[in-house]
Amino acid sequence: YSKGWLASFKSQRGISHHCLHGEAASADMTAIVASKPLQDYSPDDIYNFDEMGLFYKLGPSGTLATAPVAGHKKSKERITVALFCNASSTDLRKPSVIAHAKCPRCFGKTFQPTLYTEYFSNTKAWMTLVIFQEIVRAFDRDLHFQGRHCILLLDNASSHAVTGLQLTNLKLHFPPPCTTSSIQPLNAGIIRAFKAHYSCTRTVQEKGRIQTVDLCQALQMIRLAWHNVTATTVMNCWHHTGI
Q1: Which residue, among 184, 187, 182, 220, has the nearest Cα to 201 in the 3D structure?
Q2: Measuring CA to CA, which residue among 214, 212, 205 is closest to residue 69?
Q3: Total domain count for the chain?
Q4: What is the pLDDT of residue 241?
Q5: d(CA 214, CA 208)
Q6: By the 8 A CB rule, do 149 and 169 touch?
Q7: Minimal CA–CA distance to 208: which of 67, 59, 75?
């Protein structure tokens, strides 16, 4: 058969070439497996938890100005921010921040970090097993007080171990180890939206100069950025994961 005949045959019957996306198929199947334990819960009672690194002092790489503006050294001061929210977007819980110092100098005697975030510290400003379990236990106590039973979707990070952890109103659900981050709603765009809102809040300019940010201000901006993540964004990201 000639190429022209074959092209006409395919066109008449709506036949076209499609690549086989193995990873996408695998992710879809993983989402199905991961979602089964969630089917007994309403969207209000299904939560996702994840953490990220945040260079909280890092300003924008450029600015709009009528003349060249002096640059500044990029800050590498990093903290960890943990977020969790439910599938219905009705509960975006207070962020948890892990910094280096237990009581930074900028806190002074009157600043209360827990007005804005839950606050923890260790020398590396990383999520640890102890901090993770403290966060989860506090959530479980809240649920017990409210008379609710919920499920929390987590990744398989080593700090998310459940050794010795006893919960009454919260079930922890870990997808299969081979799961990609694509089925974690927070990784599907919620964290990206949070960071975008933080960056917008961070970009405070005065006469073309970027203001420095201390940890007190960062905690307030983290709270505001999380508040500015819309319900539409949250629900779209949950829907995108297919779980």
Answers
A1: 220
A2: 205
A3: 1
A4: 86
A5: 19
A6: yes
A7: 67
Residue 92 is part of which domain span? 42-60+74-241
Residue 134 lies in a domain: yes
- pLDDT reported for residue 64: 43
**37 in a domain, yes or no?**
no
Tell me whether residue 147 is in a domain. Answer: yes
What's the pLDDT score for residue 5? 61
CATH assignment at residue 184: 3.30.420.10
pLDDT per residue as tens digits for the range 129-161: 999 999 999 999 999 999 999 999 999 889 999
Whether the predicted pLDDT of 19 surpasses 50: no
Residue 84 lies in a domain: yes
Q: Can you read off the two tokens belonging to residue 20?
A: 């086989």
At a CB cut-off of 8 Å and minimum separation 6, what does 51 contact? 80, 81, 82, 83, 96, 98, 127
Cα separation, 77 vs 183, in Å, equals 30
